[in-house]
Amino acid sequence: MQKRTSAISALAFFLTLMFFFSMSTAISAAAVPSDFNKDGRSDLLIKNISTGSTSLWFMNADGTHSGDKILWSTVDATIVGTGDFNKDGICDFIRRSTTTGQTVLWFMKADGTRASYKVLFTDPKSIISATGDFNKDGICDFIKRNMLNGLTTLCFMKADGTIKSTKSLFTDMASSVVDSGDFNKDGICDLIRRYSPTGATVLWFMNADGTRKSAKTLFTDPKSTIVGTGDFNGDGICDLIKRKTSGETVLWFMNADGTMKSAKDLFTDSKSTVARTGDFNGDGIRDLIKLKISTGQAVLWFMNADGTLKSSKTLFTNVSYVLLPATVIPKLVKQSIYGTAGQSMGFTKYEYDAGGRQIKMSIYGATGLLTSYTTTKYNSSSKPVKVSYYNIYDQVTQYITTAYNEAGDAVKVSTYNGFAHLLLSQVITEYYDVGKPSKVTVYGATGIVSQYTTYKYNSSKKLVKVSIYNVDNKLTGYTTYAYNAEGLQSKVSEYGPTGLLLKYTTYEYNTQGKQEKVTEYGSTGVISVYKIYAYNSAGSLVKVSSYNFTDKLTGYVTNKYDAMGMIIKTSTYGPTGLLKLYTTMDYVY
Q1: Where does the signal sequence lie (predicted)?
Q2: Is residue 280 part of a domain?
Q3: What number of other Cβ atoms are within 10 A of residue 340's Cβ?
Q4: Which of 283, 276, 279 is closest to 299 using CA atoms?
Q5: Does one domain contain both 76 and 145?
Q6: R_g (Cα) of the chain, nearest Å
Q7: Is the domain of 396 the same as that of 320?
Q8: If I label 100, which of 28, 332, 346, 576 is the partner at 20 to 30 A Cα–Cα?
Q9: Strand pairing partners for 416?
């Protein structure tokens, strides 16, 4: 009996050990994001936008990588979400075609190869907003957003890649889910919703059925966004990184009630951002990757639990490398013009390289026949260096080359005849500061100055005067610029060479700093025409109405937007409301 009892005790002890081991493994797998080989460290997904090559980097604890795996070399494919979708402790990912919108879940093996796949949906107008375990079953779920109407839906997943059930979260063109994480330590993923017009950023604490338990406003600032989340102090509560457009980037340590416990300044650099977070050394503290946007330098910051930098490791310096999943950037692929009766008046198609840079623009007539096209080539800094214009016979009729200074400003623009390759003109630009020209000189084919323009600025580096001179160095006219107390342009005045006022334009703004009225006056101060601007709740321009000097409406233009704030239709009307023409814009996301 004693031996049997001992055997049972030993078995119980063994099962207990196995239970705790499996639990710790599950917790570890859940706690480490993007762990593709089950070693307890985050790995990286990187796309070379110049070639389309997408690679999985298996990371070592010192920030180096080894045993990398090339996933594919397809231009229009990207990764839009990651997570453990089959509960095997290995991170999987969601691949999306920007052309067709086909969205596919890849179940991964620990060696970086694909075990199997499941098509989730095919919709060019829908994207994945966030991923996470929203019902505490250990299987990653995802949030889907329709770009045309703003419908945002939580999809609960099964381990085989099929959808178990769905829950509509909200339908709002101006709101989006910007990140997710467990912010109250209940094992259920929560989400952060941002309202773009005001910048109101709200933490939604979630129930396991996809309903909202409660909400906490984090901040309201249109110039601030969330650029990363994760547990940065090892307390089991998700923290967040807030970034202002000024480049001020701050780590917020969070309490379980959604309030901020404390904050730690990370860096202030308008040219840098946090591109990714993860536990890259397996110490249970979230680390971050700081990206210098202008140079493409990505540096891994190993973090201490107090928000200070423990050490750093440069991963790469390459503007062609993008860390995935990346922010969705809509690309215009077709612009179509229609007449009053809906008849086609022509359309333009746009093509892009793997990095989202426009490389071809083709113009078609009303019958659908190609009339001309333009190609663009870029340098290593993604600056356009050559634009070539072609006729329907594929002959180059004209091309323009551009040279840049070290700051990335265009300093020389040369236009050539495409048939004879003869120089037609050159524009040389000198700069007062980065992005602020001081003098622009136009030369003819023989190198003789045809005209030049000078630019003057105030102490705040605001443009205050533009003067134009002819070939004889004689002033032909000038324009002055005035600003209001908020630094917004309030008046533009045009003068002749003798200083005689020709006309001026005033600008008025609403309380959000949006232009609401532009009035043009003659030299005597009498109104000639004016325009009124109207906006929707998202702050997007929806209507521009034009009036003459007698306050009579002469026509108006309306804009319609998708959920990303991109214009999808512009309509032009006469004074009676009769439609004159409209333009539609089609995008890939």
Answers
A1: 1-29
A2: yes
A3: 12
A4: 276
A5: yes
A6: 29
A7: no
A8: 346
A9: 399, 423
pLDDT at position 25 is 32
Same domain, 428 and 291: no
User: How far is residue 384's CA from residue 352's CA, in Å, rounded to a whole number?
Assistant: 13
Q: Which residue among 457, 473, 489 closes a domain?
A: 473
Question: Is the entire prediction scored with pTM above 0.85?
Answer: no
Give the Cα separation of 449 and 438 in Å (integer): 17
The most distant pair of C-alpha atoms in the chain lies apart, rounded to whole Å, by 117
Which strands sit side by side in the sheet containing 69-73, from one edge to the other? 69-73, 53-57, 44-48, 321-324
Tell me, yes or no, whether 271 and 395 share the same domain: no
Q: 177 Cβ partners below 8 Å, 6+ apart? A: 129, 130, 143, 145, 152, 169, 191, 192, 193, 194
The answer as to whether 90 is a domain residue is: yes
Q: What is the DSSP secondary-structure string of 99-130?
A: TT-EEEEEEE-TTS-EEEEEEEEE-TTEEEEE
> What CATH number corresponds to the domain at position 202?
2.120.10.30
Give the C-alpha distances (Å, rounded to integers) separating 8 from 11, 17, 360, 365: 5, 14, 74, 85
- 503 is a domain residue: no
- Residue % of the chain over a pLDDT of 70: 94
Backbone dihedral angles phi then psi of residue 18, each to the nearest 5 degrees: -65, -40
Please check the confidence at residue 9 and state whether its pLDDT lies above 60: no
Residue 186 has pLDDT above 90, yes or no: yes
Average pLDDT over residues 152-172: 98
Residues constituting the chain: 589
Q: Are 69 and 89 in contact (CB under 8 A)?
A: no
Where among 473, 502, 535 does a domain terminate?
A: 473
- The domain spanning residue 400 has which CATH number? 2.40.128
Q: What is the mean pLDDT of the chain?
A: 93
Mean pLDDT of 394-422: 96
- Residue 289 CA to residue 277 CA, distance in Å, equals 6
As a whole number of angstroms, the distance between CA 229 and CA 237 comes to 10
